[in-house]
Design brief:
Blueprint (H helix, E strand, L loop, with lengths): L8 E6 L11 E5 L2 E5 L5 E2 L13 E5 L4 E6 L11 E5 L2 E7 L6 E5 L12 E5 L7 E5 L10 E6 L2 E5 L17 E6 L9 H8 L5 E7 L2 E8 L7 E5 L8 E4 L3 E2 L17 E2 L6 E4 L2 E5 L4 E2 L5
Antiparallel strand pairs: 1-3, 2-5, 3-4, 6-8, 7-10, 8-9, 11-13, 12-14, 15-16, 16-17, 17-22, 18-21, 19-20, 22-23
Protein name: GON domain-containing protein
Main location: secreted
InterPro entries: ADAMTS_ADAMTS-like, Pept_M12B_GON-ADAMTSs, TSP1_rpt, TSP1_rpt_sf
Length: 298
C-alpha cells in the first residue's frame, strides 16, 4: 500500500486468459490485469497498486509443432475436344492442426509445405482431330516497278491444322497470288490522252493509265492517230447491263400498264411505234476536268 494515496488496493486481479495466438508452434497468450480497491472491489487507477507486484499480462504458449500439407483440387475438363490440350486444378499449401475433433485447414504460403509443389497443369489428349485444311496467305511483296503499273505477289498455301501441306482446300476459295499495283510517286504520268502521245509516243487506240483528280484511272484513248484524241471509260459489265430501250408496243388504253412493267405480246397493244429501238453501251465519253458524261454529237 502507498500511504500517500489515502487508500488501499490489491496488487492486481487477473481477468480470463485469451486463447493462444497460434494454432501450432510458438505463440502468445494475453490476459487483462487491473488494479482493484480492497474495500469495494471496483477497478481503480493503476497508481493505487504497487507496480513491482503487477502480474504479467502476456505469456508464451507452445502447442504441437505445425504441420503443412499440399491441398489439390479436382482436375478440370480438357481444354479441347480433340488434339492436344491441357487440364488445370487448384494447388495450395495448408496448415493442419487438430485442436478440434476434426482436422482444420488454413492456407499458407507455398514455402512452408514440404517437397515439390504438385503440378497445377497437365497435358491431355482425348482423340485425333479430323483433318481439315485452310488457305493461308503471306504478306504482299513490293511492286515490280518503281514507276507506272506493275504486279505484286504473295504466297498462298493450303495447310492442315498441323501446318502440313494439303490438297483439301477448295480451289474456288483460293485467294489471289498476284495483283496489279500502281506506283505514281516516282514518275511523270499523263493527265489526258493527248499527253499520252507526248510522253509515251503512243499512237494506237487502247487503255492507258492517267492521273485524274489525283487518282490513277484506266482510260480508253480513241483517235490517237489524230491531234485531238478523246477519253472514254470502259463499262465493266458491257452491254449486258448498260443499255436503253424503247419498247415497240403501245397500249390501247395508256392508263393500264402491264403488271410490274412486264413485256407481254398478248396485251391490248398496237405494234406500230416507229421510234422503238435498243441501244447498248460498252464505253462512255467523259470530260476529265468535270468527270461528266459527254453525250454523243457534242
Amino acid at each position: 500500500m502507498n500511504p500517500q494515496l489515502g487508500g488501499t488496493a490489491t496488487p492486481g486481479v487477473i481477468r480470463e486468459r485469451e486463447k493462444c495466438t497460434k494454432t501450432c508452434g510458438k505463440g502468445s497468450r494475453y490476459r487483462k490485469v487491473v488494479c482493484v480497491g480492497e474495500d469495494k472491489g471496483d477497478e481503480v487507477h493503476g497508481m493505487h497498486c504497487d507496480v513491482s507486484t503487477r502480474p504479467l499480462d502476456r505469456e508464451s504458449c507452445g502447442l504441437q509443432p505445425c504441420e503443412y500439407v499440399w491441398i489439390t483440387g479436382e482436375w478440370s475438363e480438357c481444354s479441347v475436344t480433340c488434339g492436344k490440350g491441357y487440364k488445370q486444378r487448384l494447388v495450395s499449401c495448408s496448415e493442419i492442426y487438430t485442436g478440434k475433433e476434426n482436422y482444420e485447414y488454413s492456407y499458407q504460403t507455398t514455402i512452408n509445405c514440404p517437397g515439390a509443389q504438385p503440378p497445377s497443369v497437365q497435358p491431355c489428349y482425348l482423340r485425333e482431330c479430323p483433318v481439315s485444311a485452310t488457305w493461308r496467305v503471306g504478306n504482299w511483296g513490293s511492286c515490280s516497278v518503281s514507276c507506272g503499273v506493275g504486279v505484286m505477289h504473295r504466297s498462298v498455301q493450303c495447310l492442315t491444322n498441323e501446318d502440313q501441306p494439303s490438297h483439301l482446300c477448295p480451289d474456288e476459295l483460293k485467294p489471289e497470288e498476284r495483283k496489279t499495283c500502281h506506283n505514281i510517286y516516282n514518275c511523270e504520268l499523263p493527265q489526258n490522252c493527248k499527253e499520252v502521245k507526248r510522253l509515251k509516243g503512243a499512237g494506237e487506240d487502247g487503255e492507258y493509265f492517267l492521273i485524274v483528280t489525283g487518282k490513277l484511272l484506266k482510260v480508253f484513248c480513241a483517235g490517237m492517230h489524230s491531234g485531238h484524241p478523246k477519253e472514254y471509260m470502259t463499262l465493266v459489265h458491257g452491254d449486258s447491263e448498260n443499255f436503253s430501250e424503247v419498247y415497240g408496243h403501245r397500249l390501247h388504253n395508256p392508263t393500264e400498264c402491264p403488271y410490274n412493267g412486264s413485256r407481254r405480246d398478248d396485251c391490248q397493244c398496237r405494234k406500230d411505234y416507229t421510234a422503238a429501238g435498243f441501244s447498248s453501251f460498252q464505253k462512255i465519253r467523259i470530260d476529265l476536268t468535270t468527270m461528266q458524261i459527254i453525250m454523243p454529237g457534242k
